[in-house]
Write a structure and sequence with these properties.
By secondary structure, this protein is an all-alpha fold. Helices cover 63% and strands 1% of the residues. The chain has helices at 9-17, 35-46, 51-70, 86-92, 96-106, 112-115, 133-138, 142-164, 171-190, 193-208, 218-221, 227-237, 251-293; strands at residues 24-25, 119-120. Strands 1-2 form a two-stranded antiparallel sheet. Helix 1 (9-17) packs across helix 13 (251-293), helix 9 (171-190) crosses helix 13 and helix 10 (193-208) packs antiparallel against helix 13 (251-293).
Length: 297
């Protein structure tokens, strides 16, 4: 079932669900608003991660490849390239014009992921067409594929433990540790005095437009306008007892919901534009810390 993305805490959810993290059709860059903004986007991207983090990620990939070799599989060390457009980078850092451009078409990236299936709206689910391991997987039988993926999960856990000292018994344990750390980072953002100050008028504005706001906390108010659309999508798709998606909805049906989603996303942006200009750079920074600590791109 599609749910608000299972990273960790409101900070990570916001970066994935409310901003243009990777909105590029099949890896192609979207148009940039202006040359100056494109340059600013390049500057932001260049400073988004430390060189030490990049070294650690390469070490993790090398350790995964070595682990897989010992298990009898071939794995080629691979780090996905950043395919985010300049507009996406600007939006992810709270630029009002870039966010408005994106939300005017994709809303909160909820129903739009059905209406625009070939657009990589979520970096966590984006296709990496240059991944050399895709061909390796494609050549395996179903049973071999299952074993390969399970082995790769185990090898990642082992590699992260060796390189970063994040010892975990399983991939699930590692993910839970990441989520706990994410919650800690989210709490730090929630008590930022400037964000607390900006969150209240943002919440009041949403209430004035008829949106339900249960909390004016910085990490919660950002979900007020988008949450109902997640609920709609999950209700339409249905849910099996195992929590897997059971019913798909058509692009045409999703398009009808997207129209309302876009309106809500633009209302949310108008109410929160001052807030987002401060919140999103801070949230992006916290997410980069989380990724660095757990060896993720």
């Amino acid at each position: 079932m599609l749910k608000p993305w299972r990273f960790a805490g409101p900070v990570a959810f916001l970066l994935v669900a409310l901003t243009a993290c990777s909105a590029t059709p099949e890896g192609k860059a979207a148009e940039s608003p202006t040359t100056s903004k494109a340059q600013a986007g390049e500057s932001t991207r260049a400073t988004s991660g430390s060189s030490s983090a990049a070294v650690k990620r390469r070490e993790i990939e090398a350790a995964k490849a070595d682990c897989m070799k010992k298990k009898g599989f071939t794995y080629i060390a691979y780090i996905p390239k950043d395919k985010s457009s300049d507009t996406a980078v600007m939006a992810a850092n709270g630029d009002y014009a870039a966010m408005k451009e994106f939300r005017s078409k994709y809303g909160f990236k909820i129903f739009s992921q059905i209406v625009y299936p070939d657009v990589q709206l979520h970096s966590s689910t984006a296709r990496n067409d240059d991944d050399p391991n895709a061909a390796i997987l494609a050549a395996l039988s179903d049973s071999q594929n299952t074993t390969y993926r399970s082995s790769l999960e185990d090898c990642r856990v082992q590699a992260v433990g060796t390189v970063l000292g994040k010892v975990a018994g399983s991939a699930k344990d590692l993910q839970e540790a990441r989520m706990r750390r994410g919650e800690q980072l989210s709490e730090q953002v929630d008590v930022n005095p400037r964000l607390v100050e900006l969150a209240q008028p943002y919440a009041d504005c949403l209430k004035g437009k008829g949106y339900r706001v249960d909390s004016a906390a910085p990490g919660r108010v950002t979900m007020a306008a988008s949450w109902p659309f997640w609920q709609e999508l999950n209700a339409l798709r249905g849910e099996s007892k195992t929590g897997e998606e059971s019913d798909e909805i058509s692009q045409e049906a999703a398009r009808q919901h997207l129209a309302r989603e876009i309106k809500a996303a633009l209302d949310d942006l108008e109410c929160g534009k001052d807030f987002y200009a401060v919140y999103l750079p801070e949230a992006r920074h916290e997410e980069s810390i989380l990724n660095e600590e757990f060896g993720e791109p």
